[in-house]
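=== RUN LOG ===
request id: a7f3
mode: sequence -> structure
chains: 1
length: 233
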Amino acid sequence: MDAYKTLREEAFEANMEIPRRALAIYTWGNVSAFDAGQGVFAIKPSGLAYNALTLESMVVVDLDGKVVDGKLRPSSDAKTHLVLYREFPGLGGITHTHSANAVAWAQARKSVPVYGTTHADHSPEEIPCTPIMTPEAVRNNYELETGNLIVETFHKAGKDPAAMPMVLVAGHGPFTWGKSAAQSVYHAAVLEEVCRMALLTLSLDPAAVPLPEHLIRKHWERKHGPGAYYGQQ
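=== RESULT ===
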């Protein structure tokens, strides 16, 4: 019996969505799929191009960072993933990309305001951007500290990772998550499009202001509130 077959399949399929959605080129990104019962996640191997990925190349890692299955080295971002799985209960998948518009906001070190209803449909809050990482954190353990920086940013802002499944790491790029690996990629695609729309908005009007709160709440609650009516029952 292969205890990790389903997990590797989930991770593989989610990773293949990255080039399909044009969220990264070459090797610029990774997705992991988490099995909370086993306390392990399957993740893309380090430095392998998407067209070279196979089901068997997925690497299974535990929450101590130990490889428990697979012949290749896991993504260099694996330690960031494990911190988020340990600190944010309920996650089933994490995606990291270098999609251009999200990276632009991260490089500008700016959170993304809610300029319109497309953003509000997916979150009633601005998408947070972390502070820039300190020299000490970089020297300590860069990928682990990236995860710690995300967690600290959420805790300080009082943000719920279940309600805000995305973040920009200053100077670096986006991380998104969800109840499954597939949902985490969906959120990565949403984040990239929202960032693109926000940039276009600012190019037309550099003094653009966020959407009024009553419109933000309406669009969020019609999809996610107690009386949600968007979609089918």
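=== NOTES ===
The mean pLDDT is 96.
The radius of gyration is 18 Å.
=== END ===
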